[in-house]
């Protein structure tokens, strides 16, 4: 359900936001009796550190007042002076600590050393929080962080250099420069599904750009949050790079302070809240959100390879991935082939009893498990594969649901679990219509050997990114910025895009006092005349002569040809002398 606007809510209405499951449900609360947290008799599920609703005494409860954007809470947090933390980091930036390239490089090298010296510990905490296998922990988080950081260190000197864009005729005597300035104090709010990568990778980009940083790990991934809080201060500058643990109260208060940039990863509904808080100070943001990422398959593909690639992308981290294939669009004929192939592949991967496989993660907590179980129960007559679960183990087997309709419950929101619905369509045109009738996805996957189909879907849909004939792998290309569009996100990062995200491009024009320049520009001064206007207009007129793009190659070729000719003449003269 989309969030209502402020105009739709009365003074005594709030929205209770489900952070984990990204579900937004309206509730009416007596604001004056807020401590009782009365919610129309329905409790929502818990969230990822900003907004909770009552479930039991072990959880933290927070509500959101739509009218003023404030967050209410019913628990007492561990005393933390957030104001002092924010001021400490801001003071470090204001004193210029973070700006020197030497400081940035030293922090990034220390961060790399932290990864390398705590390699096995990082694998262990991911196993504790998500029962993540070593292979997935290494490939999707630990090595991913290391490789991204090595790339940043390699190109850092190049990225920080001032840029010199092309000049027009009127500025031929001037210097035109774009400086890469840090924003200042950056807040990064991480997520629980990839609790190390989604927190530390943007942090590295913010440090590379010369910012002071406060990071907030997700308290749902408790082992990872504790690891970051305990370990990071041992390696990085404690004045400029700070970790703040906590839940809703701490995040709520953080958002009341002024930051120069906010980077949030999580659900769309909470993204709106973060965005709303940022707009009060006109703070720029990056929102890495999610949504239902579709996968289209036509009848030209290698069905076995296609099935493997889709199942892998869906079931790593048991579907708790923002860019996991959310649903499949294909013909019924392709659907039947996919299901038959999937049965064989899943058996090969996870055995006869997937619950015993060491390669399957677990659902993050019982509330998230219950939400997924309700989706399976609502479609139990359409289950083609899987459907088994164990609430004590928070286990849900890889599940495929066939002949799904747009009206089915599983098509309402992002699934974020190991359930893969298949929606039959007749052709690519129908798939395009289906995709465009919904919110813009974070990623669109297309499996086809038909170039016309590929171009048609690419040209006629909008998504944060696309991957053709595979899933997830676009994340491994550091030259591809990663981010959403519309409901799936705002802004992008990865590789140089991470550096650019946390960098303000400061434009600068440098003029001198040379007499010729002053004479040429003197027509701008009063008294104005037609002659002055004509002269200035002529100077400012855009002129597009022949492109000089290939001039270096032409010069190189000419020099090479001249050298070859000279050698030939010299050899000829030498032979004549003999």
UniProtKB/TrEMBL annotation:
Xref: InterPro entries: Ald_DH/histidinol_DH, Ald_DH_C, Ald_DH_CS_GLU, Ald_DH_N, Aldehyde_DH_dom, Aldehyde_DH_NAD(P)
Entry keyword annotation includes Transmembrane helix: yes
GO biological process per UniProt: aldehyde metabolic process
One of the record's GO cellular component terms: cytoplasm
Coiled coil: none
Sequence similarity: Belongs to the aldehyde dehydrogenase family.
Pfam families: Aldedh
Name used for this protein in its record: Aldehyde dehydrogenase domain-containing protein
Swiss-Prot/TrEMBL keywords: Membrane, NAD, Oxidoreductase, Transmembrane, Transmembrane helix
Active site: 288
Superkingdom of origin: Eukaryota
Transmembrane segments: 550-570
Domain Aldehyde dehydrogenase: 57-507
Molecular functions per Gene Ontology: aldehyde dehydrogenase (NAD+) activity
PANTHER family xrefs: ALDEHYDE DEHYDROGENASE, ALDEHYDE DEHYDROGENASE TYPE III, ISOFORM Q
